[in-house]
Amino acid sequence: MMWAHPDYPSQGIPALVAAKAAKNQGEPAFMRYHLAAFEARHEKGNDIADREVLRAIATTARLDLVEFEQDMANDKTWQAVGEDHTESKSEYGVFGVPTMAFGKGQAVFVKLAAIPESKEERISLFELIFNMGVKRPYLHELKRVEETGDIGIQLK
Fold this sequence. Notes:
By secondary structure, the chain is mostly helical. The chain contains 6 helices and 4 strands, in the order H-H-H-H-H-E-E-H-E-E. It has a domain at 2-92. The chain has helices at residues 13-23, 27-43, 51-60, 65-73, 75-92, 119-134, and strands at 99-101, 107-109, 145-147, 153-155. Strand 1 (99-101) and strand 2 (107-109) form a beta hairpin. Helix 1 packs across helix 4, helix 1 crosses helix 5 and helix 2 crosses helix 3 (51-60).
């Protein structure tokens, strides 16, 4: 099974395993890691499939690096990510990250360019996503368009 092998060629799996390794150090450690990983990927453009980048994120998040490295190398951590994927896919229909699951049949895949700075804006965004995803089941997909010059607009 692909989850048991740390060298499986994927852009996302090493980052998911790193997040699981961070979570093994407790919820506060996971939240620090999650925010640092988001910043590294979306604000700095770092390759979060790169093991050195993941280690640097762990350092930024003030994780126990010995424990982090041990969990990253542990087949059980990789297996746990696979089990999470299987459960998320079968239970909620999740196909990618990040997905917010509000209940069975009410999961919403969301891409953010940045995390809103204020707590109020983060709460407002969460409520908006919830309202669009759960209370409006007829809404299937939104995409931002950008100006492309002489050919009009093109989907990103």
